Amino acid sequence: MRCPYCSHAETQVVETRESEEGDAIRRRRRCLKCDKRFTTYERTEIALPAVVKKDGARVEFDPAKLRASMLLALRKRPVSVEQIDAAIDRIQESLLTSGARELPSAHLGELVMRELKRIDKVAYVRFASVYRSFEDVDEFRQLIRDI
Q: How far apart are CA 132 and CA 34, in angstroms?
């Protein structure tokens, strides 16, 4: 680790502890040349797959977009924030454990529908009606029969 003050390459770790949030390791270091102290943080890098859109464009997975689309479907529904957070966590865990570097947006949509079906049937129907772009009423009826 280079010293941020004098750029010397050798530093000594003086103290190591877990951050308050528990998501990082905090290290106090001392430069062996200028003797100044500084703090570094070590965090886990989470690599979620890129999302491949229908038009072939690749975008970075964005949990905020996922949350926004789920909240839109869940608008005015009796679902707690904890349930939504747990559903988003399950989706992200599924993406992480898949090991895929890319995933089609259709697959992500299916994961969202599975979670919505689990927590609120009305939100599931709302999301599916937009996501699947039904061509006629019979397709919509079939979706409702399935649940």
A: 63
pTM, whole model, 2 decimals?
0.63
CA dist., res. 91 & res. 46, Å (int): 14
Residue 91 identity: I
Q: Tell me the pLDDT of the chain averaged across its residues.
A: 89
Q: Which helix (H) or strand (E) holds 80?
A: none
Q: What angle do CA 70, 72, 77 make, to 5 degrees?
A: 90
Buried b (16+ CB within 10 A) or exposed e, 6-24: eeeeebeeeeeeeeeeeee
Domain-wise residue ranges, the chain: 11-43, 50-146
